[in-house]
Design a protein that fits this description.
The protein has about 50 residues and is mainly alpha-helical. It contains 3 helices and no strands. The longest helix is centred in the middle third of the chain and has 33 residues.
Length: about 50
Amino acid sequence: MHIVIESFVPQSCRLSWCRCRPLLRSLLRQVLLFVVTVQVLEFVNFYILCPT
């Protein structure tokens, strides 16, 4: 699994993995925050605007 992930990482990022890892972690955190926010907004819109 690790080898598969490394093959998708660009060569420059693989060479400076210690520098790229925090960037990838922050990017992942932003994506997760975005997904959670979208889910919460959809939930709120559904239950407030379309009450059954």
